[in-house]
Amino acid sequence: MTTSTPMRVIHGTNGHIGLAAYRPEFGAQLPRERCVAVVLSSPGDRSTQLLPVLAGLGVTAIDRFFDGEAHRIVAALRPELAILVCDPTQPEGGEMIRTIAASRAGRLLVVDTGGSAAGTIAALELGADATLSDRDDAAIVRATLTSLLRRVHSPHQPNLPPAEPQQLRVGALTIDRDTCEARHDGELVPLTRTEFQILRHLASRPGKVQSPGKIMSAIHEYTYTDVEAQQAVKVYIRRIRRKLADCSSQSVEILNSRSFGYRLQATSAAELVEESAA
Fold first, then answer.
1. Contact 6/22 with Cβ under 8 angstroms?
2. Hey, where are the domains in the chain?
3. Could you give the C-alpha distances from 137 to 34, 66, 101, 204, in angstroms and in order?
4. Helices (H), ranges, the chain
């Protein structure tokens, strides 16, 4: 071990100290949020073999024997991971799993000291998300922990944008995603595929300026330079404006915000008509 090897120290309430070198490629697989794990052992079992692996994954661990306060600690800390080292086939092990499964831990891993199929089944039926044997090597333990922690943090990933409604309406303009048609006051607007996609993109964000780069990226899986996007969008916007102007009524307009982009909005006349109708 070289002096440049990254090190982490974990202090456990059992009096154990885990000191481990960790491989950066494993730590990089996990989210950047700091993770907390509570490791609970039944009186006849040990949990020290888990500490170096947790250290290598950058996890802060609280290691203690299971007692009457354990479930209160887990409920208060709400750790990303709770690890129980016990024999699920024994009454005390089953009670440990049942108690912690009812708390607010993110994921529950049981390390089965009995190493039996019956223990694995019992642990899963009592609420464990995954099981290991205390005889599994460090690679298996590391892979299992990495998988659990990845799933713990998946809800914290950026929220996906809400699904776009089937129909978009701005003024008297209606855009139907299913039929791929744009109608202005019931009159079909004869748009090409790209023109329809650009108008739909603008209609999904009425009144908000969209840069040429954003517009083109939203409709094509291609990265445009600023110059390319400006030139392409300018041509398409000109065509869309002309086709909207050919309609019998005018309730929407595409405005140019110089140096920023374009926005679609209802005209003042259309807004007055809607207000009077309401």
1. yes
2. 7-156, 167-277
3. 25, 24, 25, 53
4. 24-27, 50-56, 70-77, 91-101, 117-126, 138-153, 193-203, 212-219, 226-245, 268-277
Structure tokens at 32: 């950047």
Nearest Cα neighbor of 147 from 98, 55, 81 is 81
Predicted pLDDT of residue 249: 82
In angstroms, the CA 100 to CA 202 distance is 50
pTM greater than 0.90 = no
Amino acid at 171: G
Q: What span, in angstroms and rounded, lies between the C-alpha atoms of 150 and 154? A: 6
Contact 122, 94 (CB under 8 A): yes
Domains 7-156 and 167-277 share a fold: no
Q: Give residue for tokens 């330079």.
A: 225
Q: Which CATH fold topology does 167-277 show?
A: Arc Repressor Mutant, subunit A (1.10.10)
Query: Domain 7-156, CATH 3.30.1120.10 — does that match?
Result: no
User: How far is 62 from 111, CA to CA, in rounded Å?
Assistant: 16
Q: What is the pLDDT of residues 187-211, one digit of tens each?
A: 999 999 899 999 999 999 999 999 9
